[in-house]
Design a protein that fits this description.
Order of helices and strands: EEEEEHHEHEEEEEHHEHHEEEEHEHEEEE
Largest sheet: 9 strands, mixed
Strand content: 25-35%
Strand order of the largest sheet: 1-2-5-6-19-10-21-8-7
Helix content: 25-40%
Amino acid sequence: MAPVMSMSMSMREGQIPEQKKIDNGSFFPKVIMPALLRPHHEQCYNEMGQVLECIRKEKEWIQKELHESGALLFRGFKCLKSASDFNAFVDAFGWEEKSYEGSALRNCIEGRVWTANEAPLDQDIFFHHEMALMKEFPSKLFFFCEIAPPEGGQTAIVRSDKVAREMESKFPSFVKKVNKEGILTCTFMPKEDDEGFFLGKGWPSQLHTDDPKEVERRIEGGGSKVVWMADGSANIIAGPLPATRSFEGYNDQKVWFNYIPGAVYKKAASYNRLLCGDGSAIPRAVMEESARVMDNECVEVKWEAGDVLLIDNLAVMHARRPSKPPRRVLVALCE
């Protein structure tokens, strides 16, 4: 790949040991690093203005690379140090912001920038497409590493089309069944936040209201149902939704767009219960194999401070590995 130029700054393809080559010949993730067009101009990739100008000029090229790979890792842009820098970096692409609706514990930091998840760092977060149970979900995710962990804490990514093909090959009857009948996902929402778990946001925090009628209006407007419990907690029943989906512009490739991976996590199972659309149980073998395939096929991105990971949410799932503190990763979502 030839360097992409912008005045005294350009971008070039880099490498990391973890990346894999996918079926179309692209690397996953593709690594983008700064390159110098003139000698003795090292300061150019320390200057935010040069980086933002390059992004605006080469947005179409970046989007093409993202579509081919599914994930881009921007590394070595030394001007990216803070939430404010990250906010400006994301804004330069000109993509409309997508507001977050989900059960993860997140706090807004600045502009369109949020914490990725406030749950304890010793917890895994299972593979998922962002907001996969919602009627509308983001097409792109930006992650920014402000503080790299001393150990662990990788963001794992996996091509969802690869997972779908593996699961269709190993469980053809089951996949056909749940594509026809769908999957029901029953999500437990407590009344109070459980800050000790990554799915522990209470419904007042998640929906920004303490009015049960307003909760019902919003949830049912999105195609789900609400069942209230005696203690004030709620069960949200989403679906039935197909296990795989295909999106326009992706050559009819199917992706594994469901929460089956989370069903093997013991505590997650108390917050998310999954059933086939006819009410029957999802076989344990399917859940375990789904998790195994993802772990085998994934790339674990080891963070460096200043990294930005851009993910195509329609093609790639992401997860978080446990880490030692400190670790601070921020997120921004795009329509």
